[in-house]
Amino acid sequence: MADTHAKIEDNPKILSGPVLTNSPNAVLSKTLLGRYNDLPIPADKILATYIWIDGTGEHLRCKDRTLNFIPKVPKDLPIWNFDGSSTGQSDGHNSDTFLYPRAIYRDPFRRGNHILVMCDTYKYNMEPTGTNHRIKCSEAYEKCKDDEPWFGIEQEYILLDSDLRPFGWPPGGFPPPQGPYYCGVGANKVFARDLVEAHYRCCLFAGVPISGTNAEVMPSQWEFQVGPSVGVSAGDDLWVARYILNRLAEEYGVIVSFDPKPVQDWNGSGAHTNFSTKKMREDNGIIEIEKAIDKLSKVHMKHIKVYDPRGGKDNERRLTGLHETASINDFSAGVANRGSSIRIPRTVAEEKKGYLEDRRPASNCDPYAVIDALMRTCILNE
Ligand code: ADP
Ligand code: MN
Ligand code: MN
Ligand code: MN
């Protein structure tokens, strides 16, 4: 049972970003900008938001530029740069860090022909930065393209109020125990559905293949799923979905936390990664699924190390063996078992084909690192 007297503020891990209480965003007028959004701007001017992962490996940065053409593919877009010494990606002496455009999405905030551009980052000498896991992932994907690896990622997260407590939780205490909140309906069970609905629609507009959403076990905890997406694009899709969520949350004046275990004794947040290859999806693909599980069983700790941005430290708090998780120290697999590392969904076992679910990745994982590890272990036998 949760200790109703413990203070959530005492949990230093709840927010891994900077601490700023009482964000003024919530009280800014949300309608004034409409007047300026209506201003006609020249039709040949395209606004592009370049997005990248910073030196924490878990937070996003962005900046905007004007283009004089409509880019069709990432290669049409200019390589750009930023001050890496301000993002933990270089020292001050050699701070120019480069942005390579990798994927284009429609911008749901500006609409029209304006775009979001997912980038990866390179140091002054054009070596990838320490948190650029995309490059390795895309190399792995190039090698196993013919196996058609698909990934569907379930992104769990919680919303915090500007006082850094879970949004809607009673001051100084806890809501009634978990039970009624998962997939809940009603003002006393789910909070901020408006934001979730806006996010769903923005993702569809942007071209992110969001496949669903649901309220989660802890009040103010939610999930959305992206995919199945093919290879490295699953990482692009998830990062852009996270960007859109954070941008929307700015407008609503709430904070998104991807911390994997925000509150002790309550369900944590994961990024279950559903994975299949062409062979797994064909008749009797269950044999391939079992082969993959056997390979995964031999390199459990290697995967745990890349399933959160702190080499397994974040997941230690979440993968306790309780709250629908398996222990971080043991590998296990089972049909319909939500207490195992790998779950084979019931329908997959019945149809003898489909996909497996890796339940270990933390909510703040870098999906490029996760799917890179899955492709290398299960397909490339590395
Ligand atoms: P859960 O029952 O674990 O909550 P969800 O319905 O939330 O499952 O998520 C299932 C995920 O599996 C979705 O992201 C979906 O896109 C993905 N998925 C479905 N089929 C496949 C497949 N063949 N390969 C990879 N991912 C898949
Ligand atoms: Mn789910
Ligand atoms: Mn879930
Ligand atoms: Mn799941």
UniProtKB/TrEMBL annotation:
Top-level taxon of origin: Eukaryota
Transmembrane segments: none
Keyword annotations of the record: ATP-binding, Ligase, Nucleotide-binding
UniProt domain GS catalytic: residue ranges: 133-382
Chemical reaction(s) catalysed: L-glutamate + NH4(+) + ATP = L-glutamine + ADP + phosphate + H(+)
InterPro entries per the UniProt record, alphabetical: Gln_synt_N (IPR008147), Gln_synt_N_sf (IPR036651), Gln_synth/guanido_kin_cat_dom (IPR014746), Gln_synth_cat_dom (IPR008146), Gln_synth_gly_rich_site (IPR027303), Gln_synth_N_conserv_site (IPR027302), Glutamine_Synthetase (IPR050292)
EC code: 6.3.1.2
One GO CC term, this protein: cytoplasm
GO molecular function: ATP binding; glutamine synthetase activity
Class of the enzyme per the UniProt entry, highest EC level: ligase
Pfam families reported for this sequence: Gln-synt_C, Gln-synt_N
Domain GS beta-grasp: 46-126
A single GO BP: glutamine biosynthetic process
Homology family: Belongs to the glutamine synthetase family.
Oligomer and partners: Homooctamer.
Record protein name field: Glutamine synthetase
Organism in which the protein naturally occurs: Helicoverpa armigera (Cotton bollworm)
